[in-house]
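Lest this sound abstract, we think one record worth quoting, the chain in one-letter code, the fold tokenised, each line plainly labelled:

>
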Amino acid sequence: MSGAYWTAVDSPVGELLLTADDAALTGVAFTPFTAPPSGLAPDHPVLAAAGRQLAEYFAGRREDFDLPLAARGSAFRQRVWAHLRQVPYGTTTTYAAVASTLGLSSGWARAVGHANGANPIAVVPCHRVVGSNGRLTGYAGGLDRKRALLALEHTALC
């Protein structure tokens, strides 16, 4: 195989667009989205594995994703996204805490928020980042989806 591939899967938070290159997942996007005109490949090994793991996550049987990822972004964004993968299932952190963990001052919280919002692969748990006051703040998939994902994780832990 060579190129870009995609498929769409149903989920409790709406249809998801999954994209991959030859070897890794490159995107998980929420609706509304425009499907690429070619490259439909639901049997692509990475896309099939992502679909299975997402189904397990939404069924409360998976806490972490074990997929090769290839998000495109700046070195700073890559650092933020790598840290997000370390935020435990069922917990939250703040933008300022992420900045601090990366060795940055709390003044970098806004930059962390922008990197968080630019995350192209929704299995990287950017929904687990909240405002310093504990309130839900922006989420690329919308606050209703962020609320639903946090509730799903909380319920699965109980």
